[in-house]
């Protein structure tokens, strides 16, 4: 984008300013070294650090429209990358509406390009970083346990699964079942919940002989009260706990959802970065049909379904030792469009209080199956020549795109994987091949997971 082209005022689009579009383009493709070399020398002369400081102080003149502070103090500047005279600023403007985000990015762009020695400026919208903020965001893996109906053994599966996982990794268990928070009683733990120095609620710790489990439940907050919570109040309380709980564990979080697929379940799944959901059902035909509908709903909401636990389908008589099918003729495989992770019999051993790290063989196997399914739930199934720029520093991204795109034969499909919306790349691809962006055929962007976009385009 050059000086006379107004940048888009769309909060989801990057804004760019290039003093010399040709030099910038050639520099990105790597075809002409002169521009980069000259810029590099200049940057060296100025000192990249000095330039970065000047950019930072220029950005301090840009105000956050929602608060009486500058964009730095408001935490909107995620990063500043300087490559010679090329500057890329990552701006965490997701919380603003499109128009405001566009306005702030435009003001930031203006401030950056007015800094002497800046040759091209680029402001990219990014999601605010959540690392180290506490709450569910700090867990590497989040597994939700759901059921279409109550009473099918969902909390039994959540607690035993969490106890099995706790033997292998630092695990937390979040009881989000606002209507019947029974995890504390199943694990035999109780409040009161204490706060840390910053006022964040600390989870209760359940202990086994060789492992521990962090537990937080709406049922621990005020005895009796959560059962009366409804609507907004319940949702606010849940969000507060999801966001603020000061977990000590950080590897895997198991979330026991309320039964059904109501508002609390869907908002929880949208607000919490869930890696996948395990659905619990009995083999009773109407329960299977409801579960099949829940599975469909989860998938429609982009929540991967890791598989199903079919509970209480069989009973072995302790007197005669015979096994009895409690739901003869049920059609688990035919009705459920999901992998069956475990089939658990009706057994009094599952009614006992589990301890972290000390679990039954059936739940140890379930924990293994769930971990495996969660590790591959977000696999993108990409061609081997896909260019993956996830996690790449901003200053390398355009170069990787240029190298990948220009190295293809005419008519070949270019595939790009990014951790942010790569739609603005269309313009760049056009520039690389001296075409207008609309002439790039087969251009499509698909958001495959909350953090992964896949772009495809045909090389002219
Ligand atoms: N496989 C099993 N064998 C024997 N009893 C079981 C089994 N699974 C669950 N139960 C028992 O069934 C009862 C209901 O289980 P649980 O509380 O886990 O269900 P739930 O689906 O979480 O119910 P809700 O969501 O309505 O609270 C409990 O008493 C539990 O001990």
Would you mind describing this structure in some detail?
The protein folds into 3 domains: 1-129, GMP Synthetase, Chain A, domain 3 (2-Layer Sandwich); 135-376, Rossmann fold (3-Layer(aba) Sandwich); 380-460, Rossmann fold (3-Layer(aba) Sandwich). Helix 5 crosses helix 12 (361-376) and helix 8 packs parallel to helix 9. It is globular, with a radius of gyration of 27 Å. Helix 4 links the parallel strand 3 (86-91) and strand 4. Strands 5, 6, 7, 8, 9, 10, 11, 12 and 13 form a 9-stranded mixed beta sheet that branches. A 4-stranded mixed beta sheet has the order 1-4-3-2, covered by helices on one side. It has a 4-stranded mixed beta sheet with strand order 14-15-17-16, covered by helices on one side. The protein has helices at 21-29, 33-46, 48-59, 98-113, 154-166, 183-187, 218-221, 231-244, 263-271, 285-300, 332-335, 361-376, 394-406, 425-432; strands spanning 15-18, 77-83, 86-91, 120-125, 141-146, 171-175, 204-207, 212-217, 252-256, 276-281, 305-316, 323-325, 340-346, 387-388, 413-418, 444-449, 452-458. With 460 residues, it is of the alpha/beta class. The chain binds adenosine-5'-triphosphate. The site of adenosine-5'-triphosphate has 19 residues, from helix 5, strand 11 and strand 13. One of its GO terms (molecular function) is metal ion binding. Residues 52-123 form the MIP18 family-like domain. Belongs to the Mrp/NBP35 ATP-binding proteins family. Residues 1-51 are annotated as: Disordered. Keywords: ATP-binding, Hydrolase, Iron, Iron-sulfur, Metal-binding, Nucleotide-binding.
